[in-house]
Amino acid sequence: MTAIAAATMALTSSPTLAATASIPAYGEAPAATGILTTAAAAATTGQAKPECIRVKGAAACVGADESDRPGISIEDTQPDKLHATVEYYLNGYLGTKYVIHNLAGENEIRGSREVGKTVTFRAALYKGNHRIRVSRWKTVRSVTKYPVKPETRITPATARARSEVCTSTKRAAAMCFAEKDTFVFACDTGADQRQARAEYFVGGDPTARFEIHQLAGFNTCGKAHHGDLAISKYRASVFDHNHRVATRLYKYN
Questions:
Q1: pLDDT value for 47
Q2: pLDDT digits (tens, 9 = 90+) for 118-132
Q3: Neighbouring-strand partners of residue 251
Q4: CA torsion 156→144→61→108, rounded to 10°?
Q5: Segments of the chain scoring below 50 in pLDDT
Q6: Where do the DSSP E strands lie in 83-194?
Q7: What is the distance in angstroms between the CA of the first residue and the CA of the last residue of the chain?
């Protein structure tokens, strides 16, 4: 049984993640750490501070609305040819993984304020599309006043009906989005063990690439929120584990 098939079986039996559960990602099974709350942090320090996790060359943080790093962010901390990345799950749901690649260089920070009530995340360092180093997973909860609510039963047909623009690949992946309170869907439209991904940029910024990895299987979609930021460049892709097997050329919006 492949890692993706095993993950799909796990999702079928339990679509949510308990605080102490582990998170599978491409065959890995890292242990989640203890849950931290903004209230507990504030009681200890007197102010809300972001919770961070680091690996050499990258620092990923999740901060409350009143912190200096609200939402989820990724910082490049080394002068090298690698780029920093944050990988995360929202609201304890394992069916959709989100990734932000910070392409801006040393000391630059990129991220998104649109996070859920619970965020499980890790920092990674990439060279091109190859992951070089990765941290452990960390889970935080109750970090934002207006968390993104989970939607885990969206089908490709629903995503198309709710979106203004869609693109798809021949090997069964679709990406759709709307630009009023911008949201993006990545949909798996093929009955196989491959993974659908949406890869895109927002707000005209070429230094942060966003990805949605849809892990839940056939006829499911993952959803990301981006508030007032418009999609600027996008494509749909299909992956077999970490190997791209189909894609479209990037389109400009």
A1: 59
A2: 999 999 999 988 999
A3: 234
A4: 80
A5: 1-46
A6: 83-90, 96-102, 109-112, 118-127, 130-134, 138-141, 165-169, 173-178, 182-188
A7: 40
